[in-house]
Design goal:
Elements (H helix, E strand, L loop, with lengths): L5 H8 L37 H23 L5 H33 L5
Helix pairs in contact: 1-3, 2-3
Organism: Asticcacaulis biprosthecium C19
Keywords: Membrane, Transmembrane, Transmembrane helix
Pfam families: DUF983
Length: about 120
Amino acid sequence: MTTNGKGGFIAAALGRCPVCGQGKLFKSYLKVAETCKVCATDFKAADTGDGPVVFVILIAGFAACAGLLISFLAWNWSPATLLAVWPAFAVILSLILMPILKGLMVAAQIRHKIRD
């Protein structure tokens, strides 16, 4: 079974092979597997570099800064509360987004046949 179009990107965002949608894309938290155990797709040439990190910083930073400003201006939270909530929120959001965006970038490289 081959996933085409959006299905490959959805599978990769969920940590599965963007080609078959069944095998694991990662062998650990952010380490991309060498090949898919189901369809034998080679992931070795898929090198995302710092691409996903840039998007994670932009998304998590914007969300944390917007939340900080809203909670400070609208709800008048104390500085101690702001410093307890929003950095933790940014870290947790970054940890959630990183494998999703890395999977999407690997899927884009495979779909467009990008090699080193």
